[in-house]
Amino acid sequence: MERITSTKNPRVKEWASLKHKKYREQKGLFFIEGTRLVEDALRSNAPVETLLLSEGKRETGKIEEIIHTANALGIELIEVNDAVISHVTDTQSPQGVVAIVRHYEHKLEESIQGQRDALYLALEQIQDPGNLGTMIRTADAVGATGVLIGSGSVDLYNPKVVRATMGSLFHLPVFEVELMNVLPALKERGIQLIGTSVQADQTVYDIDLTGNVVFVIGSEAHGLSEEVRKLLDTEVNIPMPGSAESLNAAIASAVILYEAVRQRMRSLA
């Protein structure tokens, strides 16, 4: 196993650059850190290119399992010191294992083909990394078909987004798209486009959410743009009998997705 201990090493500088969106896009790479995320990536056959293992932590059971799996998959293994791990990542207490992963290249057309009762979550200009990661995680939990992230949203491969997905990034297709191009095409296929609005006349509990559906959630600050709203088939509100004026975008998407799950489970009973 190769060993690197200097933060001035050219490869270390390249890995550290992945903390910035510009270089993630240029290189088509991002990083994940921690045993749980790395294990999940390996189990899911994510396109992991290199594993960085902190010296002195290789004897733990989880790390040994990761090394065994990586060897079986032919993934490059490099031993580094804690200084290199800290330089490459952006957490204060790194766990001693980092994976360099290639960007996914899911094709939306392939995802849509032959789908019945498809359930997509489409997101317009979501800015908070924690919200975006939580939305992807929730979509994974309900068994959604995929997530569409519109331009203007926080970068999918932002380290905070990746951590917030808790591995769900590796479980379902996530597409970075231009919503104004994609949503009309989905609508032409007979897929219902549903958005949220506090002014909507009907609640999320009043409409049929079975069949092929795309839920469109807008930005935390401004909601859905007028351009996107004009494309929708239906707008719904989430009842709020309390005093709060609005819900967090991630919470709103969870309420809607789980109502869809409830209806679909009931229809199968």
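Next protein, fold it too.
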Amino acid sequence: MVIELMKSHASVRDYKEKQLTREEVSELVEAAQHAATSHFVQAYSIVWVTDPEKRKKLGELSKNPKQMEGAGAVFLMCADYNRLKHAGEMQNQSIVFDQAENLIVAVTDVGLMAQNLALAAESKGYGICYIGGVRNDMQAISDLVGLPEGVFPVYGLTVGVPNEANEVKPRLPVEAILHENEYDEAKYETLLPEYDQTLKNYYASRGSNQKSATWSEQMATFLRKPRREDIREVVAKKGYLFK
């Protein structure tokens, strides 16, 4: 059942040596393409990184060497208005994509397509992991795989045969995310402490990498200062000017 598959997701960071074939990758990507896309622009591209040296360098730049070198397939999930520029030129038109709206559309398109790919992979028994670390050095990674104007990496996605099964990490309760008619922040006073305890119990009892931590502690630490402050400059160089 699809819903049960979705609820069983856990990130996989350790894979067996098996590499995905071209046929397997094509099947996953074709399924991914059937995600919803704003106004049918399909403002995304995938770079499948198979070259060992490029994968090694990608691991260094993203600070995820084990994932990038050990996965069965490594994908760079990219926002892409370059292809749309070519479509415009076919009609003797110059397209505009330097507004903030275009950036939102492209990133949303990438996210929907990537999640379709992830779900398709998991339906085949593969494990997956998103790699936000590709934003650690977006310009160098863009140069590594030759991304032109209008194209930038949003995240990586690794796929492969899991070396071990990971336990499912408990999410926030539905009540914390679902608001009816109006946004209700008052309920966080009760729900967040309860969720902190749920996650603390999970970390203490899981099979490996046990620790003592709560969700609010982790989020406060993670978000207490700016991160990846060069991103605005990099995407601006790609033509996304936030107009």
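About the second fold: The first strand starts at residue 44 and ends at 48.
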